[in-house]
Amino acid sequence: MTVTSEGRGVWLAILGALLAGVGAQQNLCWINNAGAQYVTEIMENNKIGDAVVNISVADSNVALSLEGANANMFRIDGESLRVNVILDAETMDPVFSVTVICRRQPDTNQLNVIVVIVNENDNAPMFSQSEYFLSVSELTPVGTSVERIQATDADKEALFYSLDGNTNGSEFFRLASSNSPSILVAKLLDFDEGERLELIMSASVSVLECLVCDNEKGTVFW
């Protein structure tokens, strides 16, 4: 087949239009000049309507919408992706995605936004009971572990433990370490000094300062 210069010009014009269409389709919208996928973080306990990311569009004719299983958790407000719910790292999946559809007829492309919930320390460590009653022999050697009373933390933070020094049992018992809830005998027990000894244990997320802690009565020894 012979292609004339006129025909070649027509084909080049068509090819140019196709390439222009592909380029437009690939650049209808973007986030921070990233590719088709963008990862961002948002702190839990957010306010409804907080912005997640801003979306750049090629021009004012580009319409944005959302798709995907998590689409109802977000909304498009102008060129911003905003959150519709209060996020909770303890009860929700920590990572999820939403698809942003960018449409300018006849072209469409999409952005996959990966949202990571950042955990905030908003839960106090808790013991399973407010009081524990234990029986310890008067002949128990110094250094013996008599109980391990561990607190739990919904935020999964590292916990530090302490014993209140103002109780009558504080001189007879100690913790194995600040990050261990094992209670050890620190001094030989003497029932002549009292058969009932009390300890108060606290758990906190800071070894220096009790920022968030459970200060209820921890342990009573008989």
TrEMBL record:
PROSITE patterns: CADHERIN_2
Subcellular location: Membrane
Annotated InterPro entries: Cadherin-like_dom, Cadherin-like_sf
Domain Cadherin: 34-127, 128-204
Domain of life: Eukaryota
GO cellular component assignments: plasma membrane
SUPFAM superfamilies named among the record's database cross-references: Cadherin-like
Molecular-function GO terms, alphabetical: calcium ion binding
Matching SMART domains: CA
Chain ranges passing through the membrane: none
A single BP term in Gene Ontology: homophilic cell adhesion via plasma membrane adhesion molecules
Signal peptide span: 1-24
UniProt keyword annotations, A-Z: Calcium, Membrane, Signal, Transmembrane, Transmembrane helix
UniProt cross-references to PANTHER family, sorted A to Z: FAT ATYPICAL CADHERIN-RELATED (PTHR24026), PROTOCADHERIN FAT 4 (PTHR24026:SF126)
Name the UniProt record assigns to this protein: CDHR5 protein
Source species: Polypterus senegalus (Senegal bichir)
Phylogenetic lineage: Eukaryota, Metazoa, Chordata, Craniata, Vertebrata
